[in-house]
Specification:
4 helices, elongated, two-stranded antiparallel sheet, alpha+beta
Length: about 70
């Protein structure tokens, strides 16, 4: 399990949600939530953002390009 998957699982458990409940919040099947948690490298950024928004968790991405940092929240 990678770091992003662990973060999703931890946030979901802190909110006392099942895979099915979280899936319902973002309109995906519970199997997709399980896949996100076990291997988030197959996830799209859009789905990752939807998951964290549904979990009411703040997420931000930092990208560094030629000594310039871009932040997306």
């Amino acid at each position: 399990m990678d770091v992003l998957g662990k973060m999703i699982k931890t946030a979901r458990k802190e909110r006392n949600l099942t895979h099915e409940q979280l899936g319902d919040l973002i309109a995906v099947k519970k199997e997709q939530i399980s896949k996100l948690e076990s291997s988030a490298n197959s996830a799209t950024i859009d789905n990752v953002i939807k998951v964290f928004k549904a979990l009411k968790a703040e997420i931000s991405f930092n990208v560094k390009i030629e000594n310039q940092t871009l932040q997306v929240s």
